[in-house]
Amino acid sequence: MCKGQSDYIEYIHQLPGTDSPEVFGLHPNADITYQINTAKAILDTILSMQPKEGGDRGGESREAVVSGLANDMLSKLPADYIQHEIREALQRMGAILPMNIFLRQELDRMQRVLKVVRQTLQDLHLAIEGTIIMSTSLRDMLDAMYDARVPEQWLKVRPFSFFYITKGLAKDIKKRGNKKTA
Question: What pLDDT score was predicted for residue 82?
Fold first, then answer.
């Protein structure tokens, strides 16, 4: 029991600086999510403050770096899946088996991802060359690729699939494409 003002002040200073999520009826992982989102927001703010135009530093321009990255990614993307070949292969394996149904769905999703990635990379390359107009979405894509982030246009198609593409597992996709043709 506090007897005076100094006792109250001392008690207040002993309280924790931040409230735990349990106080608000949340799971303890809510604090982890909050900290991750806060760190991401801070890093995004720092990245957005970077100069967008190169100076006379003698290095490659942003456009040259992203163009090289786009060309590299385009060269590593597997060819589009040929739908009738997939259908025939699944028929031979048993089209109504649950794993084959799942495989067909994943192949369709991956085909959509590959199509969007290929088209946007080609458009970005053409925009960097000046053949087509650099739209706002292409400018955002250029900024995202330069900052080593996944472009928003790609995340709208299939967020989970870009884990594979952006984390260096494009090799795995290419291997799977080679196995399909072998």
Answer: 86
